[in-house]
Amino acid sequence: MSRPPLYTRRPFLAGVLRQLPLLAVLVAVGVGLAMVALEHWRRGLLVVGLALVAAAGLRLVLPLRRVGFLAVRSRPVDVVLMAATGVLLTALTLAVP
Question: What UniProt keywords are attached to this protein's entry (predicted)?
Answer without folding.
Answer: Membrane, Transmembrane, Transmembrane helix
